[in-house]
């Protein structure tokens, strides 16, 4: 997704007095389908909380609740220079992070590379060779005049934003691809040696010190600069959260005999919430997206709230309305461009919501340029309302996950560090999520400041990965292990 930041649209609604009855009927019907009322929020949060608990048990549940072997929060006094690699759903970011003596400070140098679409359905070797080449080019550019084969002392934190089972901090078996990826030869495999072999092929001598999920990185980076942080979230191409849990509250770790008071970061992988399809208010469009996805029946929650799917929901509704003989929309127009699957992303909806209500002429230009569709003003008002409904539902459902973690942990006041293009750039996403939290917790007007606030986390996944690499090296130097049953050869971390 390539959002354009900037002006935010006014929140007031435009007049609907000139919208024909057939379109108004559809608007009302869409409002009924996509609006999540307060009682439904409570129902979702209760189910979410129970599923979080279930994921920590030996039996497990749909939400994996993966222990990350990131132990405890940073002190703010970590120092050194570390590499960080952040592989998201759309882009790849390579960073060099310097942690100076000043507490809670950092300097970051970074380059961004786009992940080619063909890699998303290629082979694991193709993927990791591409990533290794990006790391190599970054090192050449940032260490001019140096022989990169001499950079063996640089430690790398690898942010790999996909569900992994981790027996150690430098080990991770991919459970399944998400965010529309379908790369062969990686699921069920440890991604760390696969990546290290690619680095070796490219002549880059660096080893992975820590494999990190982007939400865990966001949690740690946010806590480094803001001690009020208790939860880290990603609202971007995908969606997820991480938080610190006492080992004694994780029954599936009981057999290890660890200190029950030890704090370990849990990567929830909450995109899998309600895979059983019990409580989420899915529309026919949500059902279609799931059925036609590479992994039907999985990541049900993610497919309703993540940036990868918002544009497709929007597109499906418009195609459906155009096919309805009772609805007069885009009459006599060629909608072939609109019929291309996933041709619209969340930034398209963001641009519509950023358009001031007066005539919605920016929306007119957007449809003309991208879809070759000439819209009428009533059609643009329906389009605007549809974008608002989809964006609002995503924000309100996302808030349910935050509330579920807070209720589970008995957190009554905290900051939630959030990163991701949808959170940072989608108009009103933050305010809509905050409103949902007020409804869930019953904060009235007498509450001057929301006790639980979702706040931006800058450079979360990059700086967080570097910090976790620093924390890991500190533990290694102290002779403290951070993993169990490690099967990987030459792991930095000794098994229990």
UniProtKB/TrEMBL annotation:
Transmembrane segments: none annotated. It holds the Pfam family Hexokinase_2. Residues 1-20 are annotated as: Disordered. One of its GO terms (biological process) is mannose metabolic process. Residues 27-224 form the Hexokinase N-terminal domain. It catalyses: a D-hexose + ATP = a D-hexose 6-phosphate + ADP + H(+); D-fructose + ATP = D-fructose 6-phosphate + ADP + H(+). Keywords: ATP-binding, Glycolysis, Kinase, Nucleotide-binding, Transferase. It is an enzyme of class 2 (transferase). GO terms for molecular function: ATP binding; D-glucose binding; fructokinase activity; glucokinase activity; mannokinase activity. Residues 230-471 form the Hexokinase C-terminal domain. It comes from the Eukaryota. Its EC number is 2.7.1.-. InterPro entries: ATPase_NBD, Hexokinase, Hexokinase_BS, Hexokinase_C, Hexokinase_N. GO terms for cellular component: cytosol; mitochondrion. Pathway: Carbohydrate degradation; glycolysis; D-glyceraldehyde 3-phosphate and glycerone phosphate from D-glucose: step 1/4; Carbohydrate metabolism; hexose metabolism. Belongs to the hexokinase family. This is Phosphotransferase. It comes from Pyronema omphalodes (strain CBS 100304) (Pyronema confluens).
């Amino acid at each position: 997704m390539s959002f354009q930041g900037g002006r935010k649209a006014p929140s007031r609604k435009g007049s609907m007095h000139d919208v024909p009855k057939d379109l108004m009927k559809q608007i009302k019907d869409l409002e009924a389908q996509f609006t999540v009322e307060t009682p439904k929020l409570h129902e979702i949060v209760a189910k979410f909380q129970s599923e979080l608990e279930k994921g920590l048990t030996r039996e497990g549940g749909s939400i994996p609740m993966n222990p990350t072997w990131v132990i405890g929060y940073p002190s703010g006094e970590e120092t050194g220079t570390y590499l960080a690699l952040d592989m998201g759903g759309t882009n790849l970011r390579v960073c060099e992070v310097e942690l100076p003596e000043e507490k809670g400070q950092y300097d970051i140098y970074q380059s961004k590379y786009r992940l080619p679409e063909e890699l998303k359905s290629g082979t694991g070797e193709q993927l990791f060779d591409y990533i290794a080449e990006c790391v190599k080019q970054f090192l050449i550019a940032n260490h001019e005049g140096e022989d990169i084969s001499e950079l063996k002392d640089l430690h790398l934190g690898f942010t790999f934003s996909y569900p992994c089972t981790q027996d150690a901090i430098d080990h991770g078996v991919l459970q399944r691809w998400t965010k529309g990826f379908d790369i062969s030869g990686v699921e069920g495999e440890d991604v760390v040696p696969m990546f290290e072999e690619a680095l070796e092929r490219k002549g880059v001598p660096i080893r992975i010190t820590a494999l990190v999920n982007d939400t865990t990185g966001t949690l740690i980076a946010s806590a480094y600069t803001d001690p009020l942080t208790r939860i880290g979230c990603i609202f971007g191409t995908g969606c997820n959260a991480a938080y610190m849990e006492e080992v004694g509250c994780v029954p599936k770790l009981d057999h290890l005999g660890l200190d029950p008071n030890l704090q370990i970061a849990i990567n929830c992988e909450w995109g899998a919430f309600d895979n059983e399809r019990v409580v989420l208010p899915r529309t026919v469009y949500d059902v279609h997206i799931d059925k036609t996805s590479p992994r039907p029946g999985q990541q049900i929650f993610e497919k309703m709230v993540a940036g990868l799917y918002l544009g497709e929901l929007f597109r499906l509704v418009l195609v459906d309305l155009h096919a309805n003989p009772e609805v007069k929309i885009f009459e006599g127009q060629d909608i072939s461009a609109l019929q291309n699957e996933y041709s619209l992303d969340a930034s398209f909806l963001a641009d519509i919501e950023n358009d001031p209500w007066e005539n919605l002429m920016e929306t007119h230009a957007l449809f003309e340029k991208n879809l070759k569709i000439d819209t009428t003003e009533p059609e643009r008002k329906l389009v605007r309302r549809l974008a608002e409904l989809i964006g609002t539902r995503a924000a309100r459902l996302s808030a349910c996950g935050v509330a579920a973690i807070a209720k589970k942990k008995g957190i009554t006041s905290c900051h939630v560090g959030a990163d991701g293009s949808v959170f940072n750039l989608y108009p009103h996403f933050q305010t809509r999520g905050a409103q949902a939290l007020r409804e869930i917790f019953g904060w009235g007007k007498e509450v001057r400041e929301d006790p639980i606030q979702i706040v931006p986390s800058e450079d979360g996944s990059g700086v967080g990965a570097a910090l976790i690499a620093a924390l890991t090296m500190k533990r290694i130097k102290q002779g403290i292990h951070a993993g169990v049953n490690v099967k990987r050869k030459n792991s930095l971390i000794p098994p229990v």
